[in-house]
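All the exercises in this workshop are built on plain-text protein records. A record pairs a protein's sequence with a compact description of its fold. Read left to right, the backbone structure tokens trace the chain's path through space. Once this layout is familiar, the rest of the handout is easier to follow. Here is such a record, shown just as it appears in the course material:
>
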Amino acid sequence: MADTGRGMTADEAGRIFTDFYTTKEHGTGLGLSIVRRLVMDLDGMVGLESAPGKGTRFTIDIPAAPAVLLEPGQTRSVTLVPYDGRRRVYGFNGKVNGEL
């Protein structure tokens, strides 16, 4: 993701993943720190390029998941958090199997 906004100083760029650090009047300072933790939990990396007056670019690299072999009759499910805030458990067939 990239923008052509005001960019960041080296000091700001060094602090943006710190919990509760914000440059916004009503910001919580948690957004980027949460994103970083989620990506790191997936053995990924968040990259940052920024220069004052030239904008900022974030890159997220997440390694592909290894293939999983299932025994006959064995199933797997994935937990997703949709934008409506409800937590649903989906099967690989795409059907909702339940709500958490």
In short: The helical segments are 10-15, 31-41. The chain has two domains: 2-61, 67-100. The mean pLDDT is 78. Residues 2-61 form a domain with the Heat Shock Protein 90 fold (CATH 3.30.565.10).
